[in-house]
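Service request form, structural biology core

Requester: graduate student, group of Dr. S.
Request type: structure prediction, single chain
Budget code: on file
Notes: please return the result as C-alpha cells.

Sequence provided:
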Amino acid sequence: MERYPSRFANLFLIIIFFILYAPIFYLIFYSYNSGGTMSNFSGFTFDWYKELFQDTRLLIIVLNTLVIALLSSLISTVVGVLGAIGIRAFRRRQTQNTLLSLNNVLIVSPDVIIGASFLILFTMAGIQLGFYSVLLSHIAFSIPIVVLMVLPKLMEMSPTLVDAARDLGANQWNVLTKVILPYIAPGIFAGFFMALTYSLDDFAVTFFVTGNGFSTLSVEIYSLARRGISLNINALSAIMFVVTILMVIIYYYLTQRSGTKGVGFRR
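Core staff response, request fulfilled:
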C-alpha cells in the first residue's frame, strides 16, 4: 500500500518539472533554428549565437552584468561574513533570533517591493539611476544570502577552538584569520556563488533602479522580447540558462562539501 503514494508523488514531481522546464528547452531548441521562427524548425544553425557575439552593444551589456555581479558578490560576501560573525557573537538566543529574522526579511520580501523601495530611496537621496544604483541594490539583497550560507558553519564551530587559540597567545586578528575564516571558508565560497547567481539573474529589482543608458542582461532580454519575437532572445536566454546552471552546480558542490544546513536557533 505504501508504493502507491510514492508512485503518485514521483509522477506529480515529473509533471511539475516538465511544466517548468519544457518551455525553457523549447526556447533553447529553437535558438538553433535557421528559419528565424519558433513554429517550424527549418535547419540547425549557430547564426543567432554568432550574431549575438557580433553585437557590440550587447557585449557591453554582458560586461556590465558581469562587473555588477562580481563586485556585488565580493562586497556582499565581506559584509555578510562580518554580519554572520556579529550575529554569532551575541550570547542571548532571543537577540540572535531577532537579528536573523531581520536578515530574512529581505529574502522573503517580494522583489517588486524591494525594487520600488530602492527606487524611492535613491530618488530621495539624489543618487542618479545607473551603475551605482544597481550595484548598491544588488549588494543589499545579496548580503542576507551570504549570512544564511555562512552562519551554519559558525554555529557548527566549537567555541573551544577559539579558546584554544587564545590560550596559545593568538590575538583577535589571528583568531579571525587563522581559525574562524579557514573553518567557515566553504560557507563563504557557497555564499559568494549564490550571491553571484542571484545578481546575474535578477530582473525585478534591477528594472526599478536601472537608468541613464545602463542595462543588464535580464533587463535587455525583457526589452528585446517586448519588441517582438527574435531568435536572438532565444540564444541570449540559452546562454544565461547555462551559466546559471553552472553556478548552481558549483553552489551545491560547495554546500555538500561544507555540510551547510538550514539556519535556526533553538530557544
